[in-house]
Write a structure and sequence with these properties.
single chain, alpha/beta, Purple Acid Phosphatase, chain A, domain 2, 3 domains, 6-stranded mixed β-sheet, 31% helix, Calcineurin-like_PHP, Nuclease SbcCD subunit D, DNA recombination
Length: 390
């Protein structure tokens, strides 16, 4: 069977105040064209369909039309919620999705309905497949609040990873079973996760990428034929017990991603054949570029089809931003090159050298305008207590 794997559309994304709706229209139209050309049996959208939990009407219209267009290519379509999505709102679209023949899983169901996360199908060629579809799981839902207060940060992180591993093991238990006809079944899994050791793309939401949300690749079952991941925006293969891949975002969502190659993954796999993956570039969005130089040097830049971040090698002065934007109308961010700014760290170190903690704390209170009576005395008591214990 053939799979088209995509993720992290982030429809509704605003870049430095610039709406990118027209770019998203072109990008998703190209994804649909790729599906028409490649004729996949299954399309997997691995989360973050939207950039915000409260998408606009235009963003909702674009996503639903793109999913419908992908379904009309003849492929089954499965989409899961990501950390940017409102899972409950996606689930509210289930009646529309079911009528359109689209499998939408926005959030985790109740325990008695957890079987809803296992989706099965048969290709036109008669090949059976089963897919475990895991939306983004918030740590707040994964670990009870009372338990969080009793655990160290490391223990809480391990608890989250253990819970994800147990969920995947439970939902993928059927992977060991043959199909009803005794023949092999293609076992698939999709989720919106951060895997330990994977490379971030540059525009992810850090709180949901690093802080206790990274899990080891060993959570995936070795008898899975392919794991389709979303969340990290850089296309990459993951070292794992089974073939595992991030498709990356089909467009760079922030300047930290300007070196990424936007693409979708095409996967050919069968029950008795290892997954073969190739990336198909998506080129419809404007590229993101960082340029630096003096005004004279910036005047020679010719990048009309790119959004620009400009680092100006000039002394700061009023009107400098306007001068740059007159030269480069596509400049969304204009900053002084950090190399041009004075290094104040040594000066601050010199000012602190040889001064007592009491004096430094007094300076801090003065800088904050804090004249509350007794604060300095309380600091002195605390400092004396700590010093004597040491």
């Amino acid at each position: 069977m053939r799979i088209l794997h995509t993720s992290d559309w982030h429809v509704g994304k605003v870049l430095k105040g610039r709406n990118r709706h027209e770019e998203h229209i072109r990008v998703l139209a190209q994804v649909v064209e790729i599906a028409r050309a490649e004729r996949p049996d299954l399309v997997i959208v691995a989360g973050d369909l939207y950039d915000t939990a409260a998408p606009t009407a235009d963003a909702t219209r674009l996503v639903t039309r793109a999913l419908s267009a992908l379904r009309k290519t003849g492929a089954r379509v499965v989409a899961i919620g990501g950390n940017h999505d409102n899972g409950a709102a996606l689930d509210a679209l289930r009646p529309w999705a079911d009528a359109a023949g689209i499998e939408l899983r926005g959030s985790f169901p109740r325990a008695e309905d957890v079987g809803d996360l296992l989706i099965e199908g048969i290709t036109e060629g008669g090949e059976r497949w089963r897919l475990v579809a895991l939306p983004f799981l918030s740590q707040r839902l994964a670990i009870r609040a009372a338990e969080m207060y009793d655990l160290t940060a490391a223990e809480a992180n391990q608890t989250y990873a253990d819970l994800v591993a147990r969920l995947i093991a439970k939902l993928s238990a059927s992977f060991a079973e043959p199909g009803p006809d005794g023949r092999g079944v293609v076992n698939l899994l999709t989720s919106h996760l951060t895997i330990v050791g994977a490379s971030t793309g540059g525009g992810e939401r850090e709180a949901h990428t690093i802080m206790g949300y990274a899990v080891p690749a060993t959570v995936f079952p070795p008898n899975a034929h392919y794991v389709a991941l979303g969340h990290l925006h850089r296309a990459q293969q993951i070292i794992s017990p089974c073939p595992t891949r991030y498709s990356g975002s089909p467009l760079a969502v922030d300047f930290g991603e300007e070196e990424n190659v936007s693409s979708v993954a095409i996967v050919d796999v069968s029950a008795d054949q290892a997954a073969r993956v190739r990336d198909v570039p998506v080129t419809s969005a404007l590229t993101l570029r960082t340029v630096r130089g003096t005004l004279e040097q910036l005047g020679t830049v010719n990048l009309p089809d790119a959004w620009l971040r400009v680092l100006v090698r000039e002394t700061p002065r009023p009107g400098l931003r306007e001068d740059v934007q007159e030269l480069l109308p596509n400049a969304l961010e204009v900053r002084i090159d950090p190399d041009m700014l004075p290094d104040t760290s040594r000066q601050r170190s010199a000012e602190r050298a040889g001064r007592s903690p009491r004096e430094l704390f007094g300076d801090y209170l003065d800088s904050r305008g804090n004249a509350e009576e007794g604060v300095r005395e309380l600091f002195d008591e605390l400092y004396d207590e700590v010093s004597s214990n040491q």
